[in-house]
Amino acid sequence: MELSSATQGAIILTIFILPIVSYTYYQRRLQLTAGGPLPPPTEITSLFIYPIKSCHGISVPSARLLGTGLDLDRQWMWVTYPDYKFLTIRNLSKMTLIRPSYNTETDTLVITAPAPNSVDEKLHFEIPAHPSEEWLANNTDVVPATVWSTTTPAHCYSTTLTSPFDNFFGQEVRLVYKPPISPEPRRLIGNGSKQHLGRDASVCFADLMPVLVGSEKSLAELNSRLKKAEDTSFSIPIGRFRPNILVRGDKPWDEDRWKMLRISPAEKSPKAYKAPLLDVVARCARCHVPNVDTETGEEHKRQPWDTLMKYRRVDPGITFKPCFGMLCVPRTEATVDVGMRVEVTATTKSHRYVKGM
Ligand SMILES: *[C@@H]1O[C@H](CO)[C@@H](O)[C@H](O)[C@H]1NC(C)=O
Ligand SMILES: *[C@@H]1O[C@H](CO)[C@@H](O)[C@H](O)[C@H]1NC(C)=O
Ligand SMILES: *[C@@H]1O[C@H](CO)[C@@H](O)[C@H](O)[C@H]1NC(C)=O
Q1: For residue 199, how far is its CA from the centre of ligand 3 (angstroms)?
Q2: What digits encode the pLDDT tens for the residues 61-70?
Q3: Which residue in 347, 338, 275 sits closest to 43, CA to CA?
Q4: What domains lie within the chain, and their CATH numbers?
Q5: CA-nearest residue, atom 3 of ligand 3
Q6: What sections of the protein cross the membrane (predicted)?
Q7: How far apart, in whole angstroms, are the C-alpha atoms of residue 76 and residue 88?
Q8: CA distance 243 to 332
Q9: What is the number of other CB atoms lying within 10 angstroms of the CB of residue 185?
């Protein structure tokens, strides 16, 4: 009996190809769910940008997600003079009283702060939010700015703009800017280094990684413990942890095993949207900064640090610090909106914070 070539093709497909394809698919599936089954999709409930490192944040309905994080997030930073070392809430908790706001009409960043020794006066200046190279060449000098162990070229603004802030800080300071696209980007280190991530990625002035994702469910769980530890009226807002993307979340602390995220419109829209993927590269190990009330600049003596230390020292790579939120590196650029859907597309059991290169 002679088989037609179509039948032969079908036989070859069934006997040889199909098992390989299904095996590969199965293996891939196993790999993607190495940290357990994928949780149900959740949604973005808030987006936050912190234009100046350690200063007050802004809640926005929509933001451009860049390789370096949300646009306007931590692109500016206060530094010491003359050595251009980063200044943070850790040095001066009242830095959170410096409030940047964004004027969409003029594309400017407006910065205000309470003037020292005055109730009514405010320190104030404005700068372009997306300065051109020419504007930067005319108005700034390039200096080497240091954040933790990394030093990167940054644009330093004139003291005619910023010197009123010397009094606020109690020392001579400068304001520096790092554009998201830079000839000398600040490369990621640790779990974000090329060696670990498999590609080059960079960030402006965030401590470590481009994006911090937090979960409302985890905050609620933490707050229920804080109420017990302190009193029933005690709770902290999410702003203490300074996340960029806040999601509703599934189970509290389920984010500990996230490996990859995809963001997409809540409803399938006819408009083509290239859904960005984010690598979840590490848990975010915390210091005492969440103890600072971002509205008053006052630091609580115990909470949430004491409570977090009791049960959130969960990362085997950094056991002396508690973790809250997940640090992510976007693979592609896109506009993200509050209400968008967030899917965990891979889970892992092997999260382990690595330091340095
Ligand atoms: C500010 O705080 C950081 C983090 O604790 C520290 O590394 C840095 O040396 C401090 N800088 C100054 C000028 O105090
Ligand atoms: C930069 O300075 C030059 C020379 O003073 C001036 O012609 C130009 O308009 C300035 N550009 C910007 C963007 O400020
Ligand atoms: C971070 O790097 C360590 C060491 O290579 C690795 O074990 C861990 O899985 C990495 N974390 C993530 C989330 O990739």
Answers
A1: 14
A2: 999 999 999 9
A3: 338
A4: 36-46+190-199+205-347 (2.40.33), 75-183 (no CATH)
A5: 352
A6: 6-26
A7: 12
A8: 19
A9: 19
Best probe residue, ligand 2, of 107, 133, 134, 157 (max atoms within 8 Å of C-beta): 134
Is residue 23 exposed (0-12), middle (13-18) or buried (19+ Cβ within 10 Å)?
Answer: exposed
The DSSP element (H or E) to which 295 belongs, if any, is none
Each residue of 83-136: pLDDT tens digit?
A: 999 999 998 999 999 999 999 999 999 999 999 887 788 999 999 999 999 999
Q: 139 C-alpha to center of ligand 2: Å?
A: 9
Quote the CA–CA distance of 345 and 354 in Å, as a whole number. Answer: 23
Instruction: Tell me the average pLDDT across 176-201.
Output: 96
Burial of 341 (C-beta count, 10 Å sphere; 0-12/13-18/19+): middle
Pairing of strands 76-80, 211-215: unpaired
Q: Determine phi and psi for 268, rounding to 5 degrees.
A: -60, 115
Helix (H, G, I), strand (E, B) or coil at 227: helix
Peptide bond before residue 100 is cis, with ω within 30 degrees of 0? no
Question: Which residue's structure tokens are 């481009």?
Answer: 210
Residue 192: strand, helix, or coil: helix
